[in-house]
Amino acid sequence: MDIKIVDLCVKVKDKEILNNFNLNINSGEIHVIMGPNGVGKSTLSKVIMGNSDYDVVSGDILVNGKSIKDLDVSQRAKLGIFLSFQNPLEIEGVTNSEFLKTMVRDVRDSDISLYDFIKEVNVCSEELEFNKDMLHRHINQNFSGGEKKKNEILQMKMLRPKFIILDELDSGLDVDSLHLVCSNINKYLEDNPSCAVLIITHYTRLLKEIVPDYVHVLKDGKIVYTGDSSLAEKIEKSGYKVFDNGTSNIAEDTVYE
Amino acid sequence: MNKIVVSKNNIKEEKIIYLDDDSEIYYDDVDVCLTLVVSKPICIFEYIRNSKIDISYDIMSCVTINRFGIDSEIVSTFNINKELAKVKCYYSCFNLNDHKYVVNINHLKEKTESFVLSHGVNVSDKKLDFLINTNVVSDSFDVVSNQDSKILLLKDSNCDIKPNLCINNDDVVANHSAYIGSFNKDLLFYLMSRGISYDDACKLIVKSFVFSDMDITFLQRGLILEEINKYWR
Ligand SMILES: Nc1ncnc2c1ncn2[C@@H]1O[C@H](COP(=O)(O)OP(=O)(O)OP(=O)(O)O)[C@@H](O)[C@H]1O
Ligand SMILES: [Mg+2]
Q: A87 touching B, CB under 8 A?
């Protein structure tokens, strides 16, 4: 899937968050967005997914050349966009397995037999070392932080998306779980080489597992700098101060040692 | 499991019922006033349809009541009558006409506990009111009393939740929360981001709202699901 974000301006409650934001993600590419807290990374992910709390003042989001502006959230998901939430929600009274069954039925537009569904969920859960008891528990209720993130990726595997957005996947996952979850994602990308990925993170440890093609820095509502995966390490060392006055400060010697 | 059916042609003479086993009580199209006495730890499932009922519970043990109502007017009183006795009451309902749901929770002894959760789905533009009254008498020390009330509006309507706490003892933990509103937008966004259609997402939210933390059997759940399925295919 090719994603093209053009001159996107986004407001929430009259506060401007994204301002002429541009980004192209071609099929098969892995992009990373980094940036200080509150700069609008999660906002971007929710706007791509179609959250109506955010006002798209101008600009457009094109998927394979076609605007998705008029599609609602579930239509975008059906198109193949998947967002792994920074903070997955808890829903009591509904089991995880019913949730998974409903999404698979709605997205694949056909009733999957219970047998096939169970078989598929079991395989996906095992690959994630996700305890099967969790399937019968209420959605994310009393799940640990890491279990919630694993549950997001379980949903991803069942939905088979074409564009994956991972919003701080690494928060909540311990070293071993992060490795396991990332190898699941890498395996998925191997099997689906045209799938595009947008990773939002603050740390390089995720990028050692899923190696990106491009790393972007988001500040003041737009991308102010783009580099390769080495940029993430420089940010981890020197912080975001070097991007304070536009990009002019990022002389090779300040960031690059 | 006891099964008691209270229907028009089946209204018992005795208006006091002693329950010492897990029980299912069905109220169907009746107007009754009953007293139920509970002296053993049990779990009760109440299914109340198109009825007007006034039930009083004498509670001398630990009891969990899972109560589901369809378009009914209910007054229910819990007299917690013995030290260390506890009541948990989960109530969900579908409402179509003007109705009140009144709960009186009377902590008459020390070290007693109550948890009363009331979730109403207001299907029509009629008025659903919750009045939840907690009353702790002056010599009831060490009491815990919590109430949580929510009304989910499917149409514009003017519903009301009135929590009243009348606490006459200092050594009491009492909490209440109340919410009236439409579907939670964040939940809708989460569910729809998985490709779940708006209607299916609403249905899941209604299920979540109605079942919440109820501890019921598969068959009892099925009965409630039948009702949910009437509104969402
Ligand atoms: N629904 C909302 N209502 C009001 N303000 C919002 C809303 N959503 C986001 N914001 C504000 O928009 C800004 C961007 O928030 P966002 O969550 O996108 O930041 P972020 O870059 O993801 O930060 P972090 O790294 O901490 O996750 C913040 O100032 C936030 O408070
Ligand atoms: Mg964020």
A: no
